[in-house]
Amino acid sequence: MRPWSVAYRSEELCGSLAAIWGQAAKTTRQLVLIDVENLAGQPCPTHLDVTSVESMVAELIPDLDKALRVVACSHRAAKTVAFAFPGALRRWRSGADGADLALLDEMSDLRIMRRFDQVTLFSGDGIFADSVAALAAAGIETTVVSWGSQISARLKMAAQHVVTLVDRESTFGEAS
Predict the structure, then answer these.
(1) Rounded distance between C-alpha atoms, residue 37 and residue 77, angstroms
(2) DSSP symbols for 90-110
(3) Average pLDDT of the residues in 24-34
(4) What residues does each domain of the chain span?
């Protein structure tokens, strides 16, 4: 049993997650951006944390191996992340918001608008709101996936689709 569940909001699609991503997968190219530290909930995730993030991403996105995947983290977690995400482009950056800044560099690449019809961001950080809004304004379908308690309100508004991960422990509360 996975330790998380999914709730989502979409103004346009009312089907399952497979409908959101599966519809685009039939005729489009997808870019998947993964902020490992954000999903793991810590700046230096363990092997178990990173493996859990990879499993969650693989379960949520049909045909993940057909998408261009970019994972980002600080240099401290680089080795652990590299082994957990074979075949993905890896971006390392040190310092405050290092992983975020590395993914922002990817998002600001103007070639994205010519190469991809769909961008999925696995992070809830508000630093991505302007970039996600710019991609959406350019006609790229945008989806943000994050923990419900950790997603920025601005980022929610910028994305066309928001997938909220719900921690099962917080859903059921503490045992008496």
Answers:
(1) 9
(2) EEE--STTHHHHHHHHHHT-T
(3) 74
(4) 6-121
| Least confident window among 31-35, 97-101, 126-130, 172-176 | 172-176
Taking phi over 0 as left and psi of -120 to 50 as alpha, with beta for the rest, 9 belongs to beta
Interatomic CA distance for residues 80 and 9, integer angstroms:
32
Cα(167)–Cα(164) distance, rounded to whole angstroms? Answer: 10
User: Which CATH architecture fits 6-121?
Assistant: 3-Layer(aba) Sandwich (3.40)
Give the bridge partners for 145, in sequence order: 122, 163
| Tokens 């010519």, residue located | 114
For residue 7, what pLDDT is reported?
Answer: 53
In the numeric block, the tokens 């990879």 are attached to 54
Structure tokens at 89: 């482009």
Residue whose entry in the numeric block shows the structure tokens 């950056």: 93
